[in-house]
Specification:
Layout lengths: L2 H10 L14 E5 L4 H11 L5 E6 L2 H14 L4 E6 L5 H11 L7 E4 L18 H16 L1 H11 L3 E6 L17 H6 L8 H20 L5 E7 L14 H10 L3 H14 L8 E3 L2 E3 L3 H4 L1 H22 L8
Parallel strand pairs: 1-2, 1-4, 2-3, 4-5, 5-6, 6-7
Antiparallel strand pairs: 7-8
The structure holds NADP nicotinamide-adenine-dinucleotide phosphate.
Length: about 325
């Protein structure tokens, strides 16, 4: 999709509120729930009568502040703030193990993400920060949360849901690293980093990962999809000091409430036909030509294998039993 089409749709395709769905008794888990699109999606899900919300947040104080705001409109919901620092695999694993103890987990929004303006390397893992958070930690979580999602599906005889927040910008990634012997190691190298390519690429990796994950998980157990929330005025752009880009976002950006609607649509209003699909403007939409090409399918598998290998090496855990 070209830039003109993108600008046109930002101005004309504002997502509508998702009609009421009764989610009574259900537990939902949202990463990056303290602000922006994640917080607004959480608010909308609470309006659907969910029993319990787990807000996965990097800074618990920010989570508590957001929780207080959210409870103003839905005071009876059991809202729990759980710490999750996606810069740390130990934190991701502790979070996943805690979630595996839940008696019920119906819906997961893997939404947390960041957009760096410069190369930054994670001290603990050695990975470039965008890839660490947006791809590696998100992918690890997607595996760790499968057991409670599947158990819930079996118990209530209906599929659970997992939606990853991707982006239309996945179509703009050039992905030069795809031919490297090891894609993840290549992206750790500072010389490969570029703005906004690295962020765009991280969103392409979300799309590829979710497609491969969905191919390994039955849609009768967990419906897995990705969503483009549109360009949204949020703190994702907090580091951006480019005046032209700031003006562009201010003019074309949707509100976080509108962005939140796209997540709720993808995870609540859409059916099993969206398993493995990419959602944009609240409907299944063609992914980039690269994703749909034979080369894309081959790289999707390579990325899957190298991501699993990296995560296993870095966390000293075995991930083969999850899919
Ligand atoms: N806004 C857009 O235009 C746009 C467009 C397409 C896709 N998206 C995607 O939408 C998702 C939500 O973004 P947003 O626009 O709502 O941005 P946002 O307001 O900045 O929210 C991002 C959330 O991710 C959390 N997060 C970042 N790094 C983390 C880490 N290391 N560990 C745990 N949590 C972390 C943030 O926590 P803190 O508050 O503590 O930093 C925050 O809660 C992201 O995946 C983004 O890529 C956004």
């Amino acid at each position: 999709m070209g830039m003109l089409g993108f600008m046109y749709r930002q101005k004309t395709a504002h997502p509508a509120p998702v009609p009421f769905h009764d989610l009574s008794g259900q537990t939902v888990l949202v990463t990056g729930a303290n602000v922006g699109i994640g917080m607004e999606a959480t608010r909308q899900l609470m309006g659907f009568k969910v029993a319990r919300v787990i807000m996965a947040v990097r800074t618990p104080a920010k989570g508590e502040e957001a929780k207080a705001q959210l409870l103003k409109t839905n005071p009876t919901c059991d809202v729990q703030v759980w710490p999750l620092d996606m810069d740390s695999f130990d934190s991701v694993i502790a979070f996943g193990q805690r979630a595996q103890q839940l008696d019920r987990l119906d819906l997961v929004l893997l939404n947390a993400g960041l957009k760096k303006q410069a190369f930054e390397q994670n001290n603990a893992t050695g990975h470039e920060t965008t890839i660490q958070v947006n791809h590696l930690a998100t992918s690890l979580l997607s595996l760790l949360l499968l057991p409670p999602l599947r158990q819930t599906a079996a118990k209530y005889r209906k599929p659970s849901r997992m939606t990853l927040t991707a982006s239309e910008v996945h179509m703009w990634a050039t992905f030069k690293e795809k031919s490297a012997p090891n894609i993840i190691k290549e992206m750790d190298d500072k010389t490969t980093w570029a703005y906004p390519e690295r962020y765009n690429l991280s969103k392409l990796l979300n799309v590829l990962w979710a497609r491969e994950l969905a191919s390994k998980v039955s849609k009768d157990q967990v419906i897995i999809n990705t969503v483009n929330p549109g360009l949204v005025k949020s703190s994702l752009h907090r580091e951006n000091t480019n005046a032209a880009e700031q003006k562009f976002t201010a003019f074309f950006g949707w509100t976080p409430e509108e962005g939140g609607r796209t997540l709720v649509n993808a995870s609540v209003a859409q059916g099993p036909g969206t398993h493995g699909r990419y959602m944009s403007e609240c409907k299944p939409t063609a992914e980039s030509p690269f994703v749909r090409s034979p080369e894309g399918s081959q790289i999707q598998k390579k990325l899957w294998n190298q991501t699993i290998e990296t995560l296993q090496e870095d966390t000293h855990t075995t991930l083969t039993g999850y899919v």
